[in-house]
Amino acid sequence: MYKNILLGVDTQLKNEKALKEVSRLAGQGTVVTILNAIGEQDAQASIKVGTHIDKLTEKRSQALEKTRSVLEDYGLDYDQIIVRGNPKEELVKHANSGKYDIVVLSNRKAESQKKFVLGSVSHKVAKRATIPVLIVK
């Protein structure tokens, strides 16, 4: 069982399978850290329409409500981090920080683009993280 799990989430994805796997990996005293990164494209687009980055962060937090609710249903403690930056780089940076035992990700591209085995984010994290990475299809 893992004590500190990093869960990389995209607000556009269904994360149910990844959350189920997190519940299987968790034990007594496990803390799941939900990480969502606001990419530069999203940040720039919001600024162009007059939305401040703080408001965008608040919207992201609201979009993660279902994820938090599912973790609560599983009886898991969680933290939430919303950062501005490249999702690939932010996940790798946090994974390699020494604070986590495993990274859990949903694989976005596997269904929509059959020619790629992994999406670019999951591929980079799996390649560069120094801790175990579980990619859930």
From TrEMBL:
It holds the Pfam family Usp. Residues 1-137 form the UspA domain. Signal peptide: none annotated. Belongs to the universal stress protein A family. PANTHER family: STRESS RESPONSE PROTEIN NHAX, UNIVERSAL STRESS PROTEIN UP12. This is Universal stress protein. It comes from Staphylococcus devriesei. The lineage of its organism: Bacteria, Bacillati, Bacillota, Bacilli, Bacillales.
